[in-house]
């Protein structure tokens, strides 16, 4: 209206446009805060995620730079959750907007995917408060700037932003966090500077009750070999040791990669397999693997990675690493990878 009225006076029009932009940002902020404090009053029903995600991606395509390729994959066998379509859209838009901003300069690939995941009592403790049950996993992955640990620690805080004044509200991820929490889901993030970021949202499937681990009945591959398990996170190590021992293996576990080298070199033929995390601050899993392979070139190694970085995967394969598993993985996946690595 006012903008149209001053058509013949460009400087004024520009000024008004800026005011308008600022007002929109303000409105956006208010809306985000309303959501954040759960005042928006969502109407939650069973909603299938695939069509909703597909529709949101179509909208996204129109609003983000063409230098960003969008890859969509919706392979979940069942994808119905109890939610309001609006909140799911908002969640996706916030994650995808951040992802596209992270790739603004150089372009890249934005991957949005849906997958099923069964969380069992034995599943890794990547998210402490996820109850066992069936979840739909919404993954938003970018190949952008990634984040330093000191940024990653704070991203879910309200008003935390690394963007300039007027550029970011710092509310996007707080809102996402609020929504996910409200839906009794969980969100995890994996990122490293220069390596892009992966956000995973776990939403409980509608109409499924938390249930017992069926795979216990089906039987998982077991074994009696000796395994060296390395992860810098205490909780993962505790989980890994317990899980592997219950599968019958003999396990030596440590949170310190340098210690792992020592243990291994004191008895190189005493271990039938090494399982190591990739992202460890003291020494990457890849470097650790190389050291161990120098000591004993035929030792089977499983690398647990957070990304599907195909290039580095190939490098790792060339270096002699037998298997990969993507975090978070289940006991079942781990058990399978172990048999593949040892029996290959
Ligand atoms: N995909 C991503 N890649 C890199 N950094 C990210 C990504 N997502 C979020 N961030 C970081 O988290 C911060 C907070 O994000 P958010 O809560 O959405 O607020 P805002 O986008 O307004 O800054 C961002 O400023 C940015 O530093
Ligand atoms: Mg944001």
The number of helical runs is 12
Cα(first) to Cα(last) distance is 71 Å
Helix content: 40-55%
- Counting DSSP E segments of at least 2 residues, the number of strands comes to 12
- Low-confidence runs (pLDDT<50, min 5 residues)? 36-40, 209-217
Summing up helix and strand content along with how strands pair, one would put the structural category as: alpha/beta
Main beta-sheet annotation: 5 strands, mixed
Bound molecules: adenosine-5'-diphosphate, magnesium ion
Strand content: 15-25%
Tell the overall outline: globular
Number of domains: 2
- In CATH, the topology of the largest domain is named Heat Shock Protein 90
What would you report as the Rg, rounded to the nearest angstrom?
Answer: 23 Å
Give the H and E element order.
HHEHEEHEEHHEEHEHEHEHEHEH
CATH superfamily of the largest domain: Histidine kinase-like ATPase, C-terminal domain
The strand order across the widest sheet is 2-4-5-7-6
Residue-averaged pLDDT, rounded?
A: 82
CATH class of the largest domain: Alpha Beta
CATH level-two architecture of the largest domain: 2-Layer Sandwich
Features:
Rossmann fold, binds magnesium ion, 5-stranded parallel beta sheet, globular, 12 helices, Heat Shock Protein 90, 344 residues, binds adenosine-5'-diphosphate, 5-stranded mixed beta sheet, alpha/beta, 2 domains
Protein architecture, described:
This protein has 344 residues and is α/β, with parallel strands linked by helices. The protein has 2 domains: 163 residues, 2-Layer Sandwich (Heat Shock Protein 90); 124 residues, Response regulator (Rossmann fold), CATH 3.40.50.2300. It contains 12 helices and 12 strands. The strands form 3 sheets. Strands 2-4-5-7-6 form a 5-stranded mixed beta sheet, with helices on one face. α2 packs parallel to α6 and α4 packs antiparallel against α6. The radius of gyration is 23 Å and the shape is globular. 34% of the residues are buried. The site of magnesium ion has 5 residues, from α4.
């Amino acid at each position: 209206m006012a903008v149209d009225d001053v058509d013949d006076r460009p400087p004024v029009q520009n000024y008004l446009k800026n005011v308008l932009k600022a007002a929109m940002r303000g409105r956006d902020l208010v809306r985000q805060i309303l959501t954040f404090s759960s005042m928006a009053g969502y109407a939650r029903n069973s909603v299938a995620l695939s069509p909703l995600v597909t529709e949101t991606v179509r909208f996204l395509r129109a609003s983000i730079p063409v230098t960003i390729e969008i890859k969509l994959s919706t392979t979940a066998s069942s994808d119905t959750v109890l939610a309001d379509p609006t909140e799911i859209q908002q969640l996706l838009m916030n994650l995808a907007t951040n992802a596209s901003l992270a790739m603004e300069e150089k372009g890249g690939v934005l991957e949005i995917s849906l997958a099923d995941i069964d969380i069992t009592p034995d599943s890794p403790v990547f998210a402490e408060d996820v109850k066992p049950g069936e979840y739909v996993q919404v993954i938003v992955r970018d190949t952008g700037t990634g984040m330093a640990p000191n940024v990653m620690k704070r991203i879910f805080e309200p008003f935390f932003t690394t963007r300039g004044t007027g550029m970011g509200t710092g509310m996007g991820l707080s809102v996402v966090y609020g929504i996910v929490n409200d839906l009794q889901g969980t969100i995890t993030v994996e990122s490293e500077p220069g390596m892009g970021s992966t956000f995973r949202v776990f939403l409980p499937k509608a109409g499924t009750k938390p249930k017992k681990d069926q795979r216990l009945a089906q039987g998982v591959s077991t074994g009696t070999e000796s395994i060296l398990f390395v992860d810098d996170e205490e909780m993962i190590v505790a989980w890994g040791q317990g899980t592997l021992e219950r599968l019958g293996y003999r396990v030596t576990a440590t949170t310190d990669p340098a210690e792992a080298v020592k243990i291994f070199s004191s008895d190189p033929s005493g271990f039938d397999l090494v399982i190591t995390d990739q992202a460890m601050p003291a020494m990457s899993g890849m470097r650790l693997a190389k050291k161990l392979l120098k000591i004993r070139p035929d030792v089977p190694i499983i690398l647990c990675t957070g990304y599907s970085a195909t290039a580095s995967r190939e490098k790792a394969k060339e270096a002699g690493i037998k298997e990969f598993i993507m975090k978070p993985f289940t006991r079942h996946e781990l058990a399978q990878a172990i048999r593949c690595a040892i029996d290959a």
